[in-house]
Design goal:
alpha+beta, five-stranded mixed β-sheet, 128 residues, single chain
């Protein structure tokens, strides 16, 4: 099975959003390299196992992405093939591409950072 993404699978708007995402990742410390296919681009934070660190990293990433793409993330839960829970923050872009942030911890837990707007503005000031 071929998992390579080809230009023929994407619209011009999806291509523009993927390019925008890769540029943002290149210029924003802490954002992991996304995996993109025809329907979604995912940023994986499952390697961050300490709950507070994961919440902070994911919250900051969600804030930056929400600011840049002008979207709101919704949280869902899924179960991985090995039975472990995965928490997903998802946002649908106008182009049809879905941004997904994957984590091992829920963002609704106690101690979740409440600085999203400030973090997004600080990160964007560094990118601009």
């Amino acid at each position: 099975m071929n998992h390579l993404l080809t230009v023929e699978q994407l619209s011009g708007r999806e291509i523009a959003d993927i390019i925008k995402l890769y540029r943002l990742v290149r210029e924003t410390p802490g954002l992991p390299m996304p995996h993109a296919d025809a329907a979604r681009a995912s940023l994986d934070y499952r390697h961050v196992v300490h709950a507070e660190d994961a919440r902070e990293a994911v919250s900051c990433a969600a804030g930056v992405l929400a600011f840049v793409f002008r979207v709101t993330f919704g949280e869902t839960q899924a179960t991985a093939g090995d039975g472990t829970p995965r928490y997903l923050l998802e946002a649908l872009l106008p182009s049809g591409l879905t941004l997904v942030i994957i984590s091992r911890v829920t963002q609704a837990g106690e101690g979740a950072p409440a600085f999203l707007a400030g973090a997004a503005e600080r990160e964007m000031a560094q990118v601009a």
